[in-house]
Automatic annotation (TrEMBL):
Domain named Fe2OG dioxygenase: residues: 171-277
Name the UniProt record assigns to this protein: 2-oxoglutarate-dependent ethylene/succinate-forming enzyme
Lineage: Bacteria, Pseudomonadati, Bacteroidota, Saprospiria, Saprospirales
Record-level Gene Ontology MF annotations: 2-oxoglutarate oxygenase/decarboxylase (ethylene-forming) activity; dioxygenase activity; metal ion binding
E.C. no: 1.13.12.19, 1.14.20.7
GO biological process annotation, one example: ethylene biosynthetic process
Pfam families registered for this protein in UniProt: 2OG-FeII_Oxy, DIOX_N
Top-level division of the source organism's lineage: Bacteria
Keywords on record: Dioxygenase, Ethylene biosynthesis, Iron, Metal-binding, Oxidoreductase
Pathway: Alkene biosynthesis; ethylene biosynthesis via 2-oxoglutarate
Catalytic function, reaction form: L-arginine + 2-oxoglutarate + O2 = guanidine + L-glutamate 5-semialdehyde + succinate + CO2; 2-oxoglutarate + O2 + 2 H(+) = ethene + 3 CO2 + H2O
Top-level EC class: oxidoreductase
Length: 318
């Protein structure tokens, strides 16, 4: 007899919001908002992201990361602060740590013909694995659509117009990241695959990783493992949304721990989508979230300024 581990995060069905009646939509809004307020994480089914597309991109990413290091380094983009192309092993660390995470990654960003600033520079084409960028672009658009629906539900939960976020995330700075955690070959120097951190963006959409290890920290300080099931994607609040809502929605600390020593030889591949607004978007605290019990916690700042500040903290920008 097989037993399944108890769920650590709620599960919601996005199709209820996108295709349901008024009562179903309202129920989804309450479920999603409650999860973001109380836990900061939620599992989502009915998201419409094709499984074949996810699987094909995973396979293409495996091919890319299997290339020799000197080939992968051709795709490092100078001056992009890791926001485009390849970032080699040992470059990024959590903001409170000086020990680099045990990972390498490739980032695909928004490309806009009418914007030529560094936030929107072109993605490199990977000639050795041509389908990698083609599939990545398709997956980017699919994540963007699902993320937009989720933010519409959150806008309603916050008492805002349903399309409040639309103009800010349209042509925003969102990033699709393929992360490769190689096999562990020696005793790590206090590093784990990804040290505890909070995400920078509005929300993160994560398709199931090829191996376990993702954990969130509860309000009492305990670590709980998140194990996605079937076609579920995991969504979490980022610091921008926490800031905008004056800490009402929680950007929860999480990490990726190393596997048991017996599984050190197994690599891990993970595909998160970091949904960012346009750089000029104001992250000023929403007046409706300021109360006597929750005074304004943050000064005004734009999304672009905040992103640059955080990229410096994690070692990707000088």
């Amino acid at each position: 007899m097989t037993t399944t581990a108890p769920r650590t995060i709620p599960l919601v069905d996005l199709s209820q919001f996108e295709k349901g009646d008024k009562a179903q939509r309202q129920a989804f809004v309450e479920q999603l908002g409650s999860a973001f307020h109380n836990i900061g994480f939620v599992g989502v089914t009915g998201h419409g992201i094709p499984k074949d597309l996810i699987d094909d991109f995973y396979n293409a990413a495996k091919e890319f990361f299997a290339l020799p290091v000197e080939v992968k380094r051709k795709y490092e983009v100078p001056g992009a602060a890791g926001q485009r192309g390849y970032t080699s092993f040992g470059k990024e660390h959590a903001k409170q740590s000086q020990v680099a995470d045990l990972k390498e990654f490739f980032q695909i960003g928004q490309e806009l013909a009418d914007r030529n600033d560094s936030a929107f520079q072109a993605n490199p084409e990977v000639t050795e694995v041509p389908q990698f960028m083609t599939l990545g672009s398709q997956l980017y658009r699919s994540f963007e659509a699902s993320g937009s629906s989720l933010l519409r539900a959150i806008a309603l939960y916050l008492g805002l117009d349903e399309k409040y976020f639309d103009q800010n995330i349209n042509d925003g700075m969102s990033i699709l990241r393929a992360i490769h955690y190689p096999p562990i070959t020696e005793e790590p120097k206090s590093a784990i695959r990804a040290e505890q951190h909070e995400d920078i963006n509005l929300i993160t959409l994560l398709v199931g990783a090829s191996a376990g290890g993702l954990q969130l920290q509860t309000a009492s300080g305990e670590w709980q493992e998140i194990i996605p099931e079937n076609d579920e994607i995991v969504i979490n609040v980022g610091d921008m949304l926490q800031r905008l809502t004056n800490n009402y929605l929680k950007s929860t600390t999480h990490r990726v721990v190393n596997p048991p020593r017996s599984e050190w030889d197994k690599p891990r591949l993970s595909i998160p989508f970091f949904l960012h607004p346009r750089p000029e978007t104001k992250l000023d605290v929403l007046p409706s979230t300021v109360t006597a019990d929750r005074p304004q916690a943050y000064p005004p700042i734009t999304a672009g300024e905040y992103l640059n500040e955080r990229l410096r903290e994690i070692g990707l920008k000088k």
